[in-house]
Amino acid sequence: xxxxxxxxxxxxxxxxxxxxxxxxxxxxxxxxxxxxxxxxxxxxxxxxxxxxxxxxxxxxxxxxxxxxxxxxxxxxxxxxxxxxxxxxxxxxxxxxxxxxxxxxxxxxxxxxxxxxxxxxxxxxxxxxxxxxxxxxxxxxxxxxxxxxxxxxxxxxxxxxxxxxxxxxxxxxxxxxxxxxxxx
Length: 183
Known about the structure:
This protein has helices at residues 39-47, 88-93, 123-137, 167-177; strands at 8-17, 33-37, 50-53, 55-56, 65-67, 74-78, 94-99, 108-114, 158-160. It is an alpha+beta fold and 183 residues long. The strands form three sheets. The chain has a four-stranded antiparallel sheet with strand order 6-8-7-9. A three-stranded antiparallel sheet has the order 2-1-3. Strands 4-5 form a two-stranded antiparallel ribbon. A hairpin with an 8-residue loop joins β4 and β5. The chain is globular and about 40 Å long.
């Protein structure tokens, strides 16, 4: 199966739109539906404002992590003169990237979505993969828990890159996660 046809194991929450437009606190923990989406279907969900996270066995917490083929998408910032799609790591390994709700022409904000070569079924390994990716892109290391939410954005501009995190890179990311924070 080619990369664009592979499905992502994620959970979606159709009640959690654009960072909780409805204002219901319960949607952060409950209402998640395990699905398998193609990259194009994920892009449609994102542009519908729908939040997503790894698949779950109950309410959204680390102990309920079930499986994922995509870690939490990593938030990155880019100056006007430095497009993140020009970043070799993103260009070679990202599945897609999309603008966040805080993106403006003056201050670019993106989420980068990665497709993993294997399904992760261990919360500790998912945390390590997320930390490794976040470290590589200079993202927020505090936002790497295994069931972290990625928000959709009805105004998102989605850019399909169609890359993948292969097995060797996956091992490197797990090893990167063990490095001290100051490196």
